[in-house]
Amino acid sequence: MAKSTIIINKLDNVAVALRDLKKGEVHEGVTLLEDITKGHKFALRDIKKGEEIVKYGSDIAYATADIPAGSHVHTHNVHTNLSENLEYTYNKVECPKKYAVPRKINVYARANGNVGIRNELWIIPTVGCVNGQAKLIADTFKSRYGTEGFDGVYVFTHPYGCSQLGDDHERTKLILQKMVRHPNAGGVLVIGLGCENNQMGPFKEGLGEIDESRVKFLICQDETDEIEAGVALVKQIADVIKKDVRTERDMSCLKVGLKCGGSDGLSGITANPLVGLFSDYIVACGGTTVLTEVPEMFGAEQKLMNRAKDEATFKKVVKLINDFKDYFRKNGQVVYENPSPGNKAGGITTLEDKSLGCTQKSGSSAVQDVVFDDGYVTQKGLNLLNGPGNDMVAVTNLGAAGCHLVLFTTGRGTPFGGFVPTLKIATNNELAAKKSNWIDFNAGAVLDSDFDTQLEKLIDLVVEVVNGKPTKNELNNTRELAIFKTGVTL
After folding, report:
1. How far apart are CA 335 and CA 320, in angstroms?
2. pLDDT tier at 488 (50, 70, 90 boundaries)?
3. Cis, peptide link before residue 68, omega less than 30° from 0
4. At what angle do helices 166-180 and 200-207 cross, to 10 degrees?
5. For residues 156 and 222, what is the distance between their CA atoms, to the nearest angstrom?
6. CB 325, CB 85: distance < 8 Å
């Protein structure tokens, strides 16, 4: 018989409902005083006003009123403990060192030593003014020539590239340059207008050495018929990348992004811990995983800091956290303005509650490095990446940092996908059944099975996706680009 409740850690003073519970039922030795919705918490004992609420073995809030045993514990009777910058101390924990036999995969070996898991042709506008022209070029090419022999032509539109100042302008340019160099793209057409701030000359210079048979440039104002000129360039690129073939490697060459969105009360119980086990597996194989969503580390950051491989890395994590808190304050916002209404409806009460569940995706491996806006992931093992929790921006950042694909856990469901394959993992059986057109994997099955069984199934699926099986976002052609904006628009 499936479990009805779970106490995540023996130190917890709350339990989580794994199904809808009714007033008067007895669970974990406690008689419920009210109905408890699936994913929500109830008190295991009387909790006094001002006392800490403990979940995952850590404080997630304090009680704002007396909470009798069996009562619903949520936003109406607790409050976050989070505040401004804290003083952090490096209390290094020894992370378990594991060994795993990496699976064989088939990838595209690129001339610069990188590998790709797709062989796509990308059209990337330098400025939003030419989004429509980029789409026309792609549509005209596909109707005229088709895409047989490679993995398709895709346009990544955005509203930026002009009227931006300072960091915003540089970030837009840098994200697009990183995309041009991404190994999932066998070739790229960069298309500009001609008068934008994001000028083609400096853009090309920032790319460094490129294969001119695979990366080409078009300035629309310089052409009489930019559509025909663009189609001709795309045809040249396509003729080159059609010759690319997959070669066998092992999973140590993979860089996998870790992301959650639309979380619920089961995210930290099913999908996120499962992805954490997958992260540990990839790291044990000699591969790389990347955790982002810095605001969703608030409240769990000390646990991550203690896993830093050395004191220099610990200091990078401190900077990562405090810089993002400074960003909040600079814009007049409190650091705990999270979780979202959907998160709360799903049973997540405070940012600490969300963060302690969110960071389960990182597993138990040591933090090897922290990557900031201008960097790439270069260190094998678990990395932390700067960026917000916003789904579209976070997945864009993960792809730009070099991730080949993203594992995206969700309890509420989302059709979203980034410019790299975005494999959606449901936290519960109901979502997986209802939105099978969005969801690639059901982690809710761990409640009826076990983590080891579901981990093997998840590894199997990732291997299939790496080898070419399309994710649901790819099948639905949901491929979005979102660039983080922090400053002034002219």
Report:
1. 14
2. confident
3. no
4. 60
5. 22
6. yes
Confidence of residue 337 (pLDDT cuts 50, 70, 90): low
Greatest Cα-to-Cα distance within the chain, rounded to the nearest angstrom: 78
CATH architecture of 5-79: Roll (2.30)
pLDDT per position as a tens digit, 81-140: 887 667 899 999 999 888 898 999 999 999 999 999 999 999 999 999 999 999 999 999
- H helical segments located in 114-216: 131-145, 166-180, 200-207
What does the pLDDT average to over 34-49?
Answer: 96
Burial status of residue 129 (CB atoms within 10 A of its CB: 0-12, 13-18, 19 or more): middle
Tell me the domain boundaries of the chain: 5-79, 120-243, 249-475
Question: What is the side-by-side strand order in the sheet with 288-291?
Answer: 367-371, 381-385, 288-291, 255-260, 405-410, 422-426, 441-442
Q: 349 near 60, Cβ under 8 Å? A: yes
Look at residue 427 and tell me whether its pLDDT is greater than 90. yes
Q: Going along 261-400, which residue ranges are E strands?
A: 288-291, 367-371, 381-385
Residue 224 and residue 271: Cα distance in Å, rounded?
53
Contact 257, 405 (CB under 8 A): yes
Q: What is the per-residue pLDDT for 242?
A: 98
Coil, helix or strand for 225?
coil
Displacement of CA 313 from its chain's centroid (Å): 21
Secondary-structure class of domain 120-243 per CATH: alpha beta
